[in-house]
Design a protein that fits this description.
mainly beta, Lipoxygenase-1, 13-stranded parallel sheet, about 50% strand, elongated
Length: about 450
């Protein structure tokens, strides 16, 4: 059964006439603010035994909502509707004009989330996307499928949901993040196309295409699948691609046992980007990263020699348990140092533009409130701005980090290793240190070893 309406008032009346299975067709035009909730006046039916679909009657002339809050409902779907945000002075950067929370059986498909650029705010904000395209919280059995979202500060912010599918969406022209997730239980992210970001270069934004975090939560995300997505810098600005830091664990704010991510699969994704964190996963129990392809793209930067820090790589926190890294293509794989419950079978791509020279550093570290990191230089030129060391010196672990490229060697070459993030809590057991066992350049090995107990640089000559 189909019911055709042309205003929000008629839409609410149509909902009252539904019992489940109906489609409410919206004539094209502006509908203003949509409110569907349990405290509507007059009271409106919002719980249905089977799906009630709210759809544009003509997809080429869609119904347009300027603001929406849908909450406390059961089995409501939106199909082919446009949610169009218009910036207004005083709006919050992370404001949420389109909110969907505490629903069961919510479906959002074939919809458009049209953002807007800020003005009159600041030099870093003006002219860039503002607000959050789609805010989804506290829902169960949710499907977000085949939508397009663009020109926001963040595309989607999804938190505290059970059993969620995010599939086939097209996200682009974001200033900061594509999709953000926290406290998810049962999540599939698949076949999405996330691309061509518009980052504000003076903002200091931490830009991610797909981000998970634990800050501000008391439960980790569990049972997560990230599969078959294309994350492409295109002609846009670089971002981190899949970034799953576990802040509360690595900062010592919660225990590994209570807050480690659990049962995470990242497979068959294609990542083209210009930042080293192609796939970054913090403390996790049960992690499979399989058959992903990570390659470099310049985006809106001029083509040229590709610095190692621009080469997408895979990083897994070394304390993670039950890890499988199988048949991935990436510039580097970091985190593995012989853990007995890890399986690693990987090749690696080589940086574009040069395979003539090979520079390797054998390192280990003492981790306290985070892993040690170092900058690597060759003849005064930065080869890698920040490499994280995951090998545990107290356990006798070492890792060899290798960089390849055309380094323009002249036969009297100097390698510098700079310890960049020293930390000390007042005792020998609360001290972050970096150890360098040896450095090799092509077929030469310099076995001079150094312990860097504070920030500073040591050198190896060739």
């Amino acid at each position: 059964m189909a019911i055709t309406v042309s205003s929000t008032t008629e839409l609410y009346k149509a909902l009252n006439a539904c019992s489940g299975g109906e489609t409410i067709l919206l004539k094209g035009g502006q509908y203003g603010t949509l409110n569907i909730n349990s405290y509507m006046s007059p009271a409106t039916k919002i719980d249905f035994a089977s799906k009630v679909t709210i759809a544009s009657a003509d997809p080429s002339n869609p119904a347009v909502f300027s603001k929406a809050e849908v909450r406390d409902s059961t089995n409501i779907a939106f199909d082919g509707v446009t949610f169009d945000y218009t910036f207004k002075p005083g709006d919050k950067q992370d404001g949420t004009p389109f909110v969907f929370q505490w629903n069961d059986g919510l479906t959002i498909k074939n919809c458009t989330f049209d953002g807007d650029e800020a003005y009159g705010v600041s030099a870093s904000a003006n002219g860039y996307g503002y607000g959050v395209g789609l805010f989804v919280r506290g829902n169960t059995n949710t499907v977000i499928e085949d939508n397009e979202a663009y020109n926001f500060y963040k595309g989607m912010n999804i938190t505290d949901n059970d059993d969620t599918i995010v599939r086939g969406n097209d996200l682009h022209s974001m200033r900061m993040d594509g999709m953000c997730f926290s406290k998810m239980d049962g999540l599939v992210i698949e076949d999405n196309y996330i691309h061509d970001f518009r980052n504000s270069p003076t903002s200091g934004d931490h830009c991610d295409m797909i981000q998970f975090f634990t800050t501000g939560t008391k439960e980790p995300s569990v049972d997560v699948v990230i599969r078959g997505n294309v994350l492409d810098i295109g002609s846009g600005s670089w971002t981190q691609s899949i970034f799953m830091r576990n802040e509360v664990v690595d900062l010592g704010q919660a225990s590994f046992a209570s807050m480690a991510y659990r049962n995470v699969t990242i497979e068959d994704n294609t990542i083209v980007n210009g930042h080293q964190w192609g796939i970054y996963v913090g403390e996790t129990i049960g992690l499979s990263i399989n058959q992903n392809t990570l390659t470099h793209g310049d985006g809106n930067k001029p083509d040229g020699w590709d610095h190692p820090s621009e080469m997408p790589q895979i990083y897994v926190d070394r304390d993670s348990k039950g890890v499988a890294l199988i048949e991935n293509v990436a510039y580097k794989i970091l985190g593995y140092s012989g853990q007995s419950d890890w399986t690693v079978q990987d090749g690696s791509s080589e940086p574009a533009g040069g395979t003539a020279d090979t520079l390797s550093v054998r390192v280990s570290g003492d981790a306290w409130n985070g892993d040690p990191a170092f900058k690597l230089m060759l003849n005064g030129v930065t080869v890698d701005a920040s490499t994280i060391v995951t090998a545990d010196h107290a356990k006798g672990e070492w890792q060899t980090v290798t960089f390849k490229g055309d380094f323009n060697l002249d036969g009297s070459d100097r390698v510098g290793v700079t310890f960049t993030n020293d930390a000390w809590g007042g005792t020998s057991s609360t001290d972050r240190n970096l150890y360098v066992d040896e450095v090799s350049l092509n077929d030469q090995i310099n076995t001079t070893n150094w312990t860097l107990g504070r920030n500073g640089t040591q050198y190896w000559d060739f």
